[in-house]
Design goal:
With 209 residues, the chain is of the alpha/beta class. It is built from eleven helices and six strands. The chain has a six-stranded mixed sheet with strand order 1-6-5-4-2-3, sandwiched between helices. β4, α9 and β5 form a beta-alpha-beta unit. The protein starts with 10 loop residues before the first helix and ends with a helix. The mean pLDDT is 94.
Length: 209
């Protein structure tokens, strides 16, 4: 085994080259519009299964780009995703990233109602009065509440639904797939905050393409 000497600035580029090469060897062809997102998720996870399990509604990448250009904010369900999403890039278009999970009013309301903080966070976000992209990487209850809000007439711009886990995860993702809201969903149990942030960044970093 020989260690490669690569400039720090070239590591990501080389990683993407390797991923593209391995995808080609597997015979997997990713549509051009979706490739930056799928490759960045694989880069984040080192898991090529995402090439098969990620589901995109028609035109969702362009819809997400347009929403961001029009000042959409991003709401996520973990501080980890909040830290990982490029707030600097989003701010260029007037947007901000929000996570309400640690807010005292959210915690108090969740305890009183015996629901999760993620469930209440979605309610708080829906009242911001701004166009919103939701990036959910941890809590299926966030997706469940979003589906309920959608059924009540709420219209988010895009839902990125990639919670990870075993309880209600698959079912919660299916609830979003049944809607007419633009979505990026990873079908099955896999996902996570890092995946949610990677999807957001793949859109932000390629927004002018």
């Amino acid at each position: 085994m020989q260690i490669q000497h690569i400039l720090p600035s070239d590591i990501e580029k080389e990683s993407f080259r390797i991923i593209r090469g391995e995808l080609a060897e597997m015979g997997k062809q990713i549509p051009k519009e979706l490739e930056p997102t799928v490759i960045r998720v694989i880069h984040t996870t080192a898991d090529f299964e995402y090439a098969d399990t990620m589901s995109f509604s028609e035109g969702v990448i362009q819809k997400a780009r347009d929403a961001i250009k029009n000042g959409a904010h991003i709401v996520t369900d973990t501080n980890m995703a909040l830290s990982g999403i490029s707030r600097k890039t989003l701010a260029k278009y007037g947007g901000e990233v929000h996570c309400f999970m640690a807010d005292e009013d959210v915690a108090e309301d969740a305890k009183k109602r015996q629901v999760t903080r993620a469930y209440v966070s979605m309610e708080k976000a829906s009242k911001l009065g701004k166009p919103l992209i939701y990036a959910i990487g941890n809590a299926p209850t966030a997706l469940i509440r979003l589906r309920e809000l959608i059924d009540e007439g709420y219209r988010p711009e895009v839902i990125i639904g990639v919670p990870v886990g075993f309880v209600n995860v698959v079912e919660a993702k299916e609830l979003i797939l049944e809607t007419d809201i633009p979505y990026i969903i990873n079908v099955g149990r896999k996902g996570g905050s890092g995946v949610a942030a990677a999807i957001c960044n793949s859109i932000l970093y390629n927004i002018e393409k």
